[in-house]
Amino acid sequence: MKWIHFAHLGGEEMKEKYPVLKGAEPFYFEGNNIGILVSHGFTGTTQSMRPLGEAYAKAGYTVCGPRLKGHGTHYEDMEQTTYEDWIRSVESGYEWLKERCDTIFVTGLSMGGTLTLYMAETYPEIKGIVPINSAIDIPTMASATNLEDLPRYLDAIGSDIKNPDVKELAYEKTPVASIRQIVMLMEKVRDDLHKITIPLR
User: Fold this and answer.
1) Facing residues of 30 across strands?
2) Serine aminopeptidase S33 domain: from which residue to which, for each copy (predicted)?
3) What is the 8-class DSSP label of residue 48?
């Protein structure tokens, strides 16, 4: 199993104000001609999905875990991104896999699961998807963005792992602008769910 990490995946290099946190780098594992794209969630990093990526790699698959733009650095960077940026980050990973693999599957956690559904809606050649706790409709989040006098940042969930010996890399603040972006992403994906025809696990 060969492991390599890299700063960005195809397309334009991410231009962010803050450096990437240690452990939040994108990753890939080179294996056979079956590829698996693994996407992390909202305000999170690749750290949360790396164990899953490693498990797939040990089974022999080629795995790509892109870092979503604005994630894994500082929440001020995230504030400057849009859901289209997050889509492009995942699509860059997909293009990387297409150059190496004949068959591709996609999985993701939370907003990563939402992006997984988006990929299935957009790329019917994908062979199967495994969305994990996909964010599709969160009414309280949508209604909160319509409130007046909201602060620029809200307290985030941060690390929510029960094991006290494990700390997840995640932002301690969530930009309100980014909440509006994920709400728009959920609306877009929800409206196109009927387009998904590939196997869902």
Assistant:
1) 2
2) 36-144
3) G
